[in-house]
Design goal:
Distance between the termini: 32 Å
Oligomer: single chain
Number of strands: 7
Number of domains: 2
Bound molecules: 6-O-phosphono-beta-D-fructofuranose
CATH architecture of the largest domain: 3-Layer(aba) Sandwich
Strand content: 5-15%
Number of helices: 17
Length: 412
């Protein structure tokens, strides 16, 4: 990993120092029985190891490494990367306070992020000493591919025809909501919680909706550059791309920069290869979807749409600790849109905040206007009205983690 990702702050992954640390609740860990975080580490991660193992004809070396990882994440202590690993120094700094401890005791966000790094290592994604037959083979590609070819995507693409002639404002709202709810289609979320995936049938609700502020920041014909920090590929990235096309075609933005992950992460997170797959899926579709795909393909060629990546997107750190080059990048955007649950946790901090803490206060450090589009799939949330919060808390539903609720929050 590059030197552009801060290393000196690594200790903070396990501690509570840093700017304005005073009033912060402690970072979430996974040691509380029955907690959401514990379920992810105790159930979801082991299930994912087995799914990846079953999806490829890996050799003995990869199977042994997966066995060792499974033992470590269920019963063992967190082990560091091997000294010869390309990113050993980064993780040595970020994990300084975590190695040797139980996976359940260290910060949840750190443990998840490091789990994905270790899983990639076990299946040889980074090769050994720059070599290796499984180098660069995305272990999650079969799941992403199946989703992209599935009936749900087919139907969603067909539905674009009906929207093509809708008034611009109606279309804008529909596409913003499609991008928002696309975040519920997250393959990691489905690994051990099919009952949650079935929550698609449940009537969904917005717990905060600052969409009017979002559109105010992007007046038609303005010189705006919009940064979109993508989350999942497939069923989320397709509506993200359709929204981006709308921003460009209706002149809400002159330019869009789409930020993706540099390597496979949290199962279905989008990388450049996934953007290409989605664009192909769009261009090969009939009707409006195909036209949108064609426009986006051309926008890539002219630079109106640019795809970028940065090692920080796979770092176990909050955005508050982003490196200067990324800070500069976001500072230059009219608006940065962060998609998804993990980006939200990294944006506001992975801590059990009082849910009425103002979103603007938690994101004041962010360089420029920022919007979060997220379905709620973990405990962290801020920016709620007291009455809305009380109603949710009294509902008895798992509204924070089940993906049935969503939010659009904006800090101008
Ligand atoms: O794809 P998203 O929306 O970032 O969601 C990923 C989420 O999945 C989990 O890994 C498990 O639910 C969360 O910890 C994380 O926030």
């Amino acid at each position: 990993m590059g030197d552009r990702v801060p290393r000196t702050v690594g200790g903070r992954a396990g501690a509570d120092s840093g700017p304005a640390a005073g009033a912060r609740p402690p970072v979430i860990t996974s040691d509380e029985p029955g907690s959401f975080a514990r379920g992810v580490l105790a159930d979801r991660h082991p299930a994912l190891v087995q799914q990846v193992r079953a999806a490829f004809p890996y050799g003995r070396r990869e199977h042994e490494a997966l066995d060792a990882l499974l033992d470590e994440i269920t019963d063992g202590a967190v082990r560091p990367l091997a000294p010869e690993d390309h990113d050993h120094a980064d993780w040595a700094a970020w994990g300084r306070t975590c190695f040797g401890r139980s996976w359940f005791e260290v910060p949840f966000l750190w443990a998840e992020s490091y789990f994905y790094r270790r899983l990639l290592g076990a299946v040889g994604y980074f090769g050994s000493l720059g070599e290796g037959p499984w180098r660069g083979v995305d272990p999650f590609a079969p799941f992403k591919r199946a989703e992209l070819r599935g009936d749900a995507v087919e139907e969603e693409l067909r539905a674009l025809d009906a929207l093509a002639d809708a008034p611009a404002a109606e279309r804008a709202t529909a596409l913003l909501h499609a991008s928002l709810w696309g975040n519920r289609a997250d393959l990691g979320f489905r690994v051990s919680a099919p009952e949650r995936a079935a929550a698609e049938d449940v009537v969904s609700a917005l717990v905060a909706d600052d969409s009017a502020s979002l559109w105010r920041l992007l007046p038609v014909g303005g010189p705006s550059t919009v940064a979109v920090v993508a989350d999942n590929a497939g069923r989320e990235l397709i509506p993200d791309l359709v929204l981006i096309d709308h921003l460009l075609a209706h002149r809400h933005a002159r330019r869009v920069v789409l930020h993706v992950k540099p390597y496979p992460y949290y199962v279905s997170d989008a990388m450049t290869a996934d953007v290409v797959d989605c664009l192909r899926r769009l261009t090969e579709a009939p009707g409006e979807a195909g036209r949108i795909g064609g426009r986006l393909w051309r926008a890539m060629g002219t630079g109106d749409l640019e795809v970028r990546t940065h090692p920080f997107f796979c770092a176990p750190l909050p955005y508050e600790e982003m490196p200067d080059d990324l800070r500069g990048e976001f500072a230059g955007a009219t608006l940065t849109v962060l998609k998804g649950d993990l980006n939200y946790r990294r944006l506001v901090g992975d801590r059990p905040w009082d849910a009425t803490t103002p979103f603007a206060a938690r994101t004041a450090y962010f360089p420029g206007a920022v919007a979060a589009l997220r379905t709620l799939k973990s405990d962290v949330v801020v920016g709620l009205e007291r009455t809305a919060l009380d109603t949710l808390e009294h509902s008895g539903a798992a509204w924070r983690t089940s993906g049935t609720h969503a939010l659009i929050q904006v800090r101008a």
